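Fill-in record for Calcineurin-like phosphoesterase domain-containing protein.
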Amino acid sequence: MANRQWRPSPLRRISPPAIVALFLVVILWLGVSNDYPMGGLSASSFLGQPMSLEEELRVEASRKKLDFSQYVGLWTISGDEIAIDDPERRLIIVGDVHGMDNELGDLLKKVGYSSEHDRLVHLGDVTIKGPHSRRVLSRLASQNVTGVRGNHDQKVIEWRGFIDYVKSQKGGREWFEELEAMDLTPKQFDKLSKKKKKYKIPDGWEWGSEHWNLARKLSESEYNYLRSLPLAIHLPSLHTFVVHAGMLPYDPTHSMRNKKQPLSHLPTVSHASSQDVETVRAAQELTILNEVPQNRKPFTLLNLRDVTPKGKVSRKPGNGQPWADMWNEVQHLCKGFSSELVDDNEPDELKRKKYLPCYPTNVIYGHAAKRGLDLKRWTKGIDTGCVYGRRLTALVFGDTKHKGLDDSGDEEELEEVRFGDSSKARVVSVKCRAP
């Protein structure tokens, strides 16, 4: 039989430079890393892994020509930073202030707040509706107070971003100042803008609104403080999230026990202390934020009130089940990990269990003034409608001996509530004067 000449396969005939080029194309298509997804597609999303809140925000910003939202995702405050076991230090979390600076001062006096020893955290919506938004911002910024941004704060941030952009363009400052001098109503501006508007204002924004008016008056330091605020804060030592409006414990468009739900299984923890319950627990808490798709949307964290029967997030009260009710129902099913801390992904096994392999997580929130003080087992809502002439409320942690509280003669009793696994917090409030 004649010897046949050996020929390389079609794949082998590809030159090494071509192989390198093909490899680079694939890398660019997937994205260089999960942290910097290209073209709205990250390697994690391509491989079927959920993006984190931070990744989702980066992708969303990359889709916009101009990003006025300027979202900051998550801050983590460690146990060492709050140290509520130290008798000289406390954590104080304050509900929606809404520009009520006098009442904020009254509340801080009543709890005996010390910027040197106490950690003060606010729940957002520190601005708008009340008379002294700038005074509140100045107070918080000067004392380096931590907090989250609220839906009204967000509108102010966006307006200021737009105003600064317009003024940075050639002729923009003159255009903006000319419109300001006209003192237009929103309807007059809409009519005029159809003929003369040089810079398009995003749909749904209202020229001359309270948000617009505050945004254009903010000092640079006040604006920088406001836009530095994150959407959520994680307190792992208290197993707690701090958010303005709320968050979901699972994706309600799927079964609660679906293996993709973050509380249906243990998270993957790769570092050396992965067998430590506290480490795994903190990691699982973060999966609630990062793996529930609704929680990766700023709209949810800033506006959530109810969940509709179809599992949609709603900002309207009475449009479905209050999210806090859903949260508490799920947390009551969290009965801890197995002794081996093994991730059991067997669907049939999970269906037979009446509990979930998780520990409960707390959420402290504001936003829901109509509900008032809403103290449930695993959620604490403390927007008590100060700007409507009701009360401004704080949760005080580490105040086991009524330390520092001022006896102001207020008829409201100082209520102590159970918090988390075995902690307690004191509820302190002051009367508010209607603006």
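KEY FINDING: The chain has a mean pLDDT of 81.
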